């Protein structure tokens, strides 16, 4: 883990890869506009020529209305495309139900019998406030459906490296798809203020090969 990292997380899912690409694409447009406007302002400040007889110019009005519209369209279209991709859920191989509590998480693997556990923050951890006693294993390169809810107040289940942030709302089920394409341990935290111990609700996901996941399921009890 790189504590001094100022860029985005290394990706662990295709969705996060697309989010980073969209971020870079949008930043390129923003930097281009900022550079152009700065250059024009600099040229205007150095320009000694002016005219007090120009009251209007229809062509300029059309141009500086049309160009921002086109730029916004180039940002909005890939943004909407990515939004629909994030909501798409097709033939999940595994369903995990996640329940938020004050102040811990509980997990239930609905496709198997009696595979459920609670996950509390580990008191003795290398990474402060980020490790748990029971991490959440998921199989590599498998489409997974996550269902979240809460027993008490509003929580938010978040794994930044996978581009996932999903609210856990009392009395409501939210769902999202997840696919991990890189093995490893990925950490997150509750991202919705939920009380005095809000900072002590870490999340740890272990992405492991399928054969190890099957072995974990068999040996769970």
Automatic annotation (TrEMBL):
GO terms for molecular function: copper ion binding; cytochrome-c oxidase activity; oxidoreductase activity. One of its GO terms (biological process) is ATP synthesis coupled electron transport. It is found in: Mitochondrion inner membrane. Keywords: Copper, Electron transport, Magnesium, Membrane, Metal-binding, Mitochondrion, Mitochondrion inner membrane, Respiratory chain, Translocase, Transmembrane, Transmembrane helix, Transport. The chain crosses the membrane at residues 21-42, 62-84. Its cofactor is Cu cation. It comes from the Eukaryota. It catalyses: 4 Fe(II)-[cytochrome c] + O2 + 8 H(+)(in) = 4 Fe(III)-[cytochrome c] + 2 H2O + 4 H(+)(out). Residues 91-219 form the Cytochrome oxidase subunit II copper A binding domain. Binds a copper A center. Residues 1-90 form the Cytochrome oxidase subunit II transmembrane region profile domain. It is a multi-pass membrane protein. Its main location: mitochondrion. The keyword Magnesium applies. PROSITE patterns: COX2, COX2_CUA, COX2_TM. GO terms for cellular component: mitochondrial inner membrane. InterPro entries: CcO_II, CcO_II-like_C, CcO_II_C, Copper_CuA, Cupredoxin, Cyt_c_oxidase_su2, Cyt_c_oxidase_su2_TM_dom, Cyt_c_oxidase_su2_TM_sf. Component of the cytochrome c oxidase (complex IV, CIV), a multisubunit enzyme composed of a catalytic core of 3 subunits and several supernumerary subunits. The complex exists as a monomer or a dimer and forms supercomplexes (SCs) in the inner mitochondrial membrane with ubiquinol-cytochrome c oxidoreductase (cytochrome b-c1 complex, complex III, CIII). PANTHER family: CYTOCHROME C OXIDASE SUBUNIT 2, CYTOCHROME C OXIDASE, SUBUNIT II. Belongs to the cytochrome c oxidase subunit 2 family. Component of the cytochrome c oxidase, the last enzyme in the mitochondrial electron transport chain which drives oxidative phosphorylation. The respiratory chain contains 3 multisubunit complexes succinate dehydrogenase (complex II, CII), ubiquinol-cytochrome c oxidoreductase (cytochrome b-c1 complex, complex III, CIII) and cytochrome c oxidase (complex IV, CIV), that cooperate to transfer electrons derived from NADH and succinate to molecular oxygen, creating an electrochemical gradient over the inner membrane that drives transmembrane transport and the ATP synthase. This is Cytochrome c oxidase subunit 2. It comes from Livia junci.
């Amino acid at each position: 883990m790189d504590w001094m990292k100022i860029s985005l997380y290394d990706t662990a899912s295709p969705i996060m890869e697309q989010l980073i690409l969209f971020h870079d694409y949008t930043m390129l447009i923003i930097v281009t506009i900022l550079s152009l406007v700065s250059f024009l302002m600099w040229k205007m400040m150095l320009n000694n020529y002016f005219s007090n007889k120009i009251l209007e110019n229809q062509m300029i009005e059309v141009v500086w209305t049309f160009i921002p519209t086109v730029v916004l369209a180039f940002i909005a279209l890939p943004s909407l495309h990515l939004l629909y991709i994030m909501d798409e859920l097709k033939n999940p191989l595994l369903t995990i139900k996640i329940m938020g509590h004050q102040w811990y998480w509980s997990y239930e693997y609905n496709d198997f019998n009696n595979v459920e556990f609670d996950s509390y923050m580990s008191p003795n951890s290398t990474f402060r406030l980020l490790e748990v006693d029971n991490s959440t294993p998921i199989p590599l390169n498998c489409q997974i459906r996550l269902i979240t809810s809460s027993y008490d107040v509003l929580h938010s289940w978040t794994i930044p490296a996978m581009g996932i942030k999903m609210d856990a709302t009392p009395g409501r089920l939210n769902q999202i798809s997840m696919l991990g394409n890189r093995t490893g341990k990925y950490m997150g935290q509750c991202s919705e203020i939920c009380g005095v111990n809000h900072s002590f609700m870490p999340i740890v996901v272990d992405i492991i090969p399928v054969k190890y996941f099957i072995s974990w399921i068999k040996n769970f009890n």
